[in-house]
Amino acid sequence: MTPEAKQRIDDLIQNNKIMVFMKGNKLMPQCGFSNNVVQILNVLGVPFETYDVLSDPQVREGIKEYSSWPTIPQVYIDGEFVGGSDIMIELYQKGELQQKVEVALAS
Fold first, then answer.
1. Which member of 16, 22, 33, 105 has the lowest number of beta carbons within 10 Å of its beta carbon?
2. In the structure, what pLDDT confidence band is assigned to residue 107 with cuts at 50, 70 and 90?
3. In sequence order, what are the beta bridge partners of 25?
4. Within 16-95, where are the H helices?
């Protein structure tokens, strides 16, 4: 990963309470897994930002190394890597995602 890509990723994660690295953006997800994450966050009604990895090959590859997670999308809440689509669905169904988001937004 280039130092520039790492810095861009660091900045995005630090400057946004809920950050989603995905294919497409929150208005137009470009894959079903990214769409799942956007739909869950929309249902929760929380503010979140997205970064389209399709527009930036360095970040697309760099984020996988950054998190040691091989797939996109990737969700960060309050600077912490949470996971991808399956983990977000699981946390949402258990009611744990709502709590995690509330704590992050309150801090």
1. 105
2. confident
3. 28
4. 32-44, 57-67, 85-94
Name the average pLDDT for the chain.
95
Distance CA 44, CA 89 (A): 12
DSSP helix/strand/coil, 68: coil
Q: Is 23 helix (H, G, I), strand (E, B) or coil?
A: coil
Please count the structural domains in the chain. Answer: 1
Q: Which domain holds residue 10?
A: 3-106
Whether cis (ω within 30° of 0) applies to the bond prior to 73 is yes
- Cβ distance 26 to 75 under 8 Å? no
Unique residue bearing structure tokens 């996109």? 72
DSSP conformational letter for 95: T
- 83: phi then psi, degrees, rounded to nearest 5: 150, -160
> Which residue type is seen at 57?
P
CATH number at residue 10: 3.40.30.10
Give the DSSP H or E segment for 97.
Answer: helix 96-106
